[in-house]
């Protein structure tokens, strides 16, 4: 489990506060897609037949989501960080308890379960929201689809 100190999170607060949503979108697209795509942005796991389509429902990998609003989320929504899940990525040192990323990393034993448990806050595909939790979801997709951890893939 990755551990960061509260002071480290606070030190990063100024940096993350200064990053505009457009920059976050570019960074998230680059880093998250590289888990599944190569430098030419070809979707390797899709090209190799491990994942049927970029529009694959996330319920394929999270069957419990079939019972609620999360059933409408696709892999494309997750890759584009527009899954609609409620997530607060803030690193505000005065309010670390409100940050989902701080909660997930510092306080949760099962980070993937925490990320997957987030409720829907917006219709999928409609709102960009940078989320470290979404990256956790992608790691499960890749591992379940390929049988390899993201590090080994």
What would your notes on this structure say?
The protein is an all-alpha fold and 153 residues long. The chain is built from 7 helices and no strands. The chain has helices at residues 6-18, 21-36, 44-47, 75-79, 100-107, 111-116, 132-146. The longest helix is centred in the first third of the chain and has 16 residues, at 21-36. The radius of gyration is 15 Å and the shape is globular. Residues 1-35 have low confidence and may be disordered.
Structural key phrases:
single chain; 7 helices; 153 residues; 0% strand; 44% helix; mainly alpha; globular; disordered N terminus
Secondary-structure content class: mainly alpha
Largest sheet: none
Number of β-strand runs: 0
Q: What is the terminal-to-terminal distance? A: 19 Å
- State the order of secondary-structure elements, H for helix, E for strand: HHHHHHH
Q: Runs with pLDDT <50, length 5+? A: 1-35
- Fraction of residues in H or I helices: 40-55%
Mean pLDDT over the full residue set: 78
Name the assembly state.
Answer: single chain
Radius of gyration: 15 Å
Note the total helix count.
Answer: 7
Shape: globular
Task: Note the topology.
Blueprint: H1 6-18, H2 21-36, H3 44-47, H4 75-79, H5 100-107, H6 111-116, H7 132-146
Report a brief summary of the structure.
By secondary structure, the protein is mostly helical.
């Amino acid at each position: 489990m990755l551990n960061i100190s509260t002071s480290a999170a606070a030190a990063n607060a100024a940096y993350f506060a200064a990053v505009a949503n457009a920059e976050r979108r570019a960074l998230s697209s680059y880093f998250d897609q590289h888990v599944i795509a190569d430098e030419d942005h070809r979707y390797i796991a899709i090209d190799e037949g491990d994942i049927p389509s970029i529009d694959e429902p996330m319920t394929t990998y999270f069957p419990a989501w079939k019972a609620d609003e999360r059933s409408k989320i696709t892999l494309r929504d997750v890759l584009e960080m527009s899954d609609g899940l409620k997530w607060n990525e803030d690193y505000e040192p005065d309010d670390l308890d409100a940050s989902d990323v701080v909660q997930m990393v510092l306080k949760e034993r099962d980070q993937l379960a925490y990320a997957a448990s987030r409720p829907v806050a917006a219709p999928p595909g409609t709102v960009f929201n940078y989320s470290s939790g979404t990256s956790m979801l992608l790691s499960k997709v890749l591992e379940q689809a390929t049988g390899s951890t993201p590090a080994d893939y």
